[in-house]
Amino acid sequence: MGSKSVVDLLAERLAARGVRRFFGVPGGDCSLDIIEAASRVGIDFILTRNETAAAIMASVTAELTGAPGVVMTTRGPGIANAVNGIAYAALDRAPLLVLADGYDRELDHVSHQRFDQAALLAPLTKGCGRLDGSDPGKDIDAIIDAAFALPPGPVYLEVKGADIRAEANGASAAQGPAAVHDPVAPAIPARVKSLLSAAKRPLVIAGLQACDAAAAAALRRLVVKWNCPVLMTYKSMGVVSSDDPRALGLYIGGVAEEPIITEADLILFYGLDAIEFPPHRWRYAAPIVELTAHAFDRNIVRPEVTLAGPLPRLAAAVEDLVDGSGWPPEFFGSARAHLRRRADASGGKPISPQQLVDAALAVAPKETRITVDAGAHMLPVLHSWHSSEPRQTLISRGLATMGFALPAAVASALAEPDRPVIAFTGDGGLMMCTAELGTAMQHDCRLVVVVFNDASLTLIGAKQRRRQLPNAGVDFAPADFASVARGFGCLGLRVETPGDLGPKMRQALNHRGPVLLDVVVDPAAYHEQIISLRG
């Protein structure tokens, strides 16, 4: 290894795993060494304005590229502020490497900015490491492998100046990614064969594990073979294209899909993760067969049979066990229409949430990726949008955090600069990460931020209204986000009348840099829409 330092070794191992950029807010110690070492192997550092946004960007980068996401912070307030983004990686299953400064041993007397950072992250991380051992190369490989072990998630590497500047003597050669545990699919139990062969109206509910390209392809073959309907979770939109008439819409655990699921005599869970279930009891009597990449605890419903293993092999093993479904041909069209009607949010003046979504749909190229924040606005967006491939729609479901859409859109624009991306956000979510408009501008990201501006935490307000509580604590002072965007150098457009909606949407999507479209909407339709979909 010659005079190669441990930080050089770290950078080389990350580059070998496919890392091309990492995100964060640096401090004055190890961060500077890591930035310099990374640049020498072609890894760019993206300076963000906030550590939580950096962790979200890194996590989404991992989801889109297949390489580990990397976020770097300073000690103390830096790592503490990144926790929400790290929680996204944990609950939304993204392989994320978290790097943060620790204190060198000669500073053991220091209390400033000092707390047990590993303990803070322990409930979220799958592993914790340092680079003070005799074989730092092995330690680096092991911690990254832990991030990818099923289910994927965040790991923490605490680095100290004396350790990373030391020579990497004794470091083992790079081993590459750990071999993926891909056993032969288990033999199909007689109980599964019996359930599937008896099924006349099977229905598939697909989850986030199906976003893997091979798993999605296997699911598409199975759905065609069975000629059965499929519902997708928020995380799995596009694993069966919206162009397929069998793709009925979303499973959200609400009343809208209840008459559809009730018609099924067997339900197949395909890659459905426990984090995707809504927090109420399962309400259907049909037997459930579960295909999953890995077993996990669940407290919502217990399937009759769970088969764990590689989803493509499991799908291939069961696809011939259903001898043609009995769904009438007219069912698919009527079920899709039913869900669209239940999701309509056209009420309200002058601009309804549905008008805004429809205007975006009318002009957005088919390959457009969308990122969606938490809030009432997500319902008209997700129930209307067309997704033809996995991860064309990005949302936080496990954590369901606000402040997700803009950082996720920045990550998308950096990973795939030629693909248009729209971030749909409410005003509350945007205010949690507005400064990342500066990150988008600094890196000339092609993205459009669409703000549903109703000066309220509307989803919480709807819950308040349903409980017949007085309106309090959920409304904001009015804000002109277009002016704020222009302050960062972005193109800022404001829409207050329906006639301006289409032209300004087209202007936004034709612009090559970052745009913010600030649309004043009437939230009146949300209340009925929530009742219609969720009950």
Produce the secondary structure layout.
Elements: H1 6-16, E1 21-25, H2 30-40, E2 44-47, H3 51-65, E3 69-73, H4 77-81, H5 83-91, E4 96-101, H6 117-121, E5 128-130, H7 136-148, E6 154-159, H8 161-164, H9 190-198, E7 202-206, H10 213-226, E8 230-232, E9 247-250, H11 258-262, E10 266-270, E11 288-292, E12 305-308, H12 311-318, H13 329-343, H14 353-363, E13 369-372, H15 378-384, E14 393-395, H16 405-415, E15 421-426, H17 427-431, H18 436-442, E16 448-453, H19 458-466, H20 481-487, E17 491-495, H21 498-510, E18 515-520, H22 524-534
Parallel strand pairs: 1-2, 1-3, 3-4, 4-6, 5-6, 7-8, 7-10, 8-9, 10-11, 11-12, 13-14, 13-15, 15-16, 16-18, 17-18
Helix pairs in contact: 1-2, 1-7, 3-5, 3-16, 10-12, 14-21
Q: Specify the CATH class of the largest domain.
A: Alpha Beta
Derived structural class: alpha/beta
CATH superfamily of the largest domain: Thiamin diphosphate (ThDP)-binding fold, Pyr/PP domains
Within the largest sheet, what's the order of strands?
Answer: 2-1-3-4-6-5
**How far is the N terminus from the C terminus?**
63 Å
Record field, number of beta strands: 18
Globally, the shape reads: globular
* Helix proportion: 25-40%
| Overall tally of domains | 3
Q: How large a portion of the residues is in β-strands, by DSSP E?
A: 15-25%
Task: Please state the CA-atom Rg, rounded to the nearest Å.
Answer: 24 Å
Named CATH architecture of the largest domain: 3-Layer(aba) Sandwich
Which consecutive residue ranges, at least 5 long each, have pLDDT under 50? none
The biggest beta sheet is recorded as: 6 strands, parallel
Give the overall average pLDDT.
Answer: 92
Q: What is the CATH topology classification name of the largest domain?
A: Rossmann fold
User: How many helices?
Assistant: 22
